[in-house]
């Protein structure tokens, strides 16, 4: 398909620097004296930073030059990306814009500050001046090979990468049992299960009337139609407000990408694609893990996306190996 008919495509990256003292003070105030251990969504790794944003951004500019604008969403922080953009892509400096939480939470400022990726992602469609079609990245997602608009949108509708799974009945039962034990036996009324990637996606499907199965999307960039979300939340403002009311990730929330996909499916979109990507979680792995992952990524021409989780926690040698490979891949 002629890419011009796809329309403009923008990119959105969510980012936080958890080492920022101002951010840490906000976080401690929001905790209200509670231990982070009692709030799963407040884990340190939720706010980790190992300069992934640089490589996420450069990978988009390198392998998806058709992307019109890139919006970096953050909370009163400066990711300081201009110096390396000026060095490698000086012609694209004006295509990068920092978006503060105040902009996307306009009208809902009472829920700020927030430390909840699920809440933040649910309002990124409210970025001013963004194209109707956009692709969402968390800062630990990267492009590793050239992509085309058709990898993201076909006939002006999002491509959905994932697979169908059955309703997580056992997980639901286990969570209910744990809640009951903690509340009625251990007298731990603050207990909540750790927010689950699977359960957040099921919550989205169930919200839209799916009963027996759900479309499980992977750790890849997600193509999104702004109009689809805008229409849904304008018709269901209470759902949006409940979603963004949680300051920390909560097991009752839905996964934003999953909601967009199930809305698309419900409206007849059948642009399904295999979830072919490279997933790295290098922390605590045995020697050779990173080498095997990189080798697989290089040798498989179908792998165009990479997700590296908790890079800041893994040993220095593996960190340097991953970064060195990404830098070389960008210049190849």
From TrEMBL:
GO BP annotations listed: polysaccharide biosynthetic process
A GO MF label: transferase activity, transferring phosphorus-containing groups
Keywords of this entry: Exopolysaccharide synthesis, Transferase
Lineage top rank: taxon: Bacteria
Domain (Stealth protein CR1 conserved region) ranges: 8-34
Record-annotated Stealth protein CR2 conserved region domain positions: 46-156
InterPro entries found in the cross-reference section: Stealth, Stealth_CR1, Stealth_CR2
UniProt cross-references to Pfam families, sorted A to Z: Stealth_CR1 (PF17101), Stealth_CR2 (PF11380)
Family: Belongs to the stealth family.
Protein name per its UniProtKB record: Stealth family protein
Naturally occurring in which organism (per UniProt): Aquiflexum gelatinilyticum
